[in-house]
Amino acid sequence: MSKSILIINSSFRKKNTYKVLMQIEQLLKKSDTNIEIINLFDYKIENCIGCKKCITDGECCFKDDMINLMQKMVKSDGLILSSPIYVGTVSGKFKTMVDRTCMWYHRPELAGKPILFVATTEATGIKDTNKCFETIAMEWGVQKAGFIARSSRNINSSVQDKELLQFLKLLNDGKSSYKPSIYEINIFQVQKVLALKTNERDKQFWQDSGWIDKVYYYTCKINLLKRIFSNLIFKFLYKIID
Ligand SMILES: Cc1cc2nc3c(=O)[nH]c(=O)nc-3n(C[C@H](O)[C@H](O)[C@H](O)COP(=O)(O)O)c2cc1C
User: Is residue 37 over pLDDT 90?
Assistant: First the structure.
């Protein structure tokens, strides 16, 4: 069955980042995919005001385009998120969008989706931007399937098929081929304990998702050592967190 991919361009300009995204789209068209590209600047997204209503009540105090965007993200089989690098990291527009997904840090509705990140820069900030993307992926429980970065030095280098390999593999082979890191497993257990101990809505979500007795969100490649670590960290945190 054709896989649906949502590509998000978060630069106002349809220039460097958009150009890379267009190349990715062309390559993806060779496989059985259904691609939608959206421009974040076409979406009205208010700044998070920190009311935490999304966490406690399950919905944001703002009824803006973020509702539609989050639904699109949940419905997609795979995501490609991008940002121009501003002052050494992701742009404000991109971060504003991510802040509004705070409820997914508690109730990870995107868990297991493959995500490819893209960033462009004049020269600097690639490492820190990748770190930022990694943190977001970990907290969302998604499968980080690559990072394509271009600077003025190589902005004209076309995106290669091999840069999309991991994304396509995870998209088509399902979740089972993913190898979560020890950090990802740790975050899974931390979020689980917090859900069980601190928030009834989160607890219900984790129970309904069938994650309570799991070492990770889904069955995938986790070696014995990581399994032991996962169980131990859960028991330890469950004991110390009130
Ligand atoms: C506000 C702003 C901040 C920027 N900060 C950096 C930076 O820290 N390092 C850098 O090398 N380039 C920086 N740039 C350049 C952009 O990252 C670069 O031109 C990028 O490819 C723009 O993407 P776009 O064409 O998709 O808008 C900055 C540009 C702007 C407008």
Answer: yes
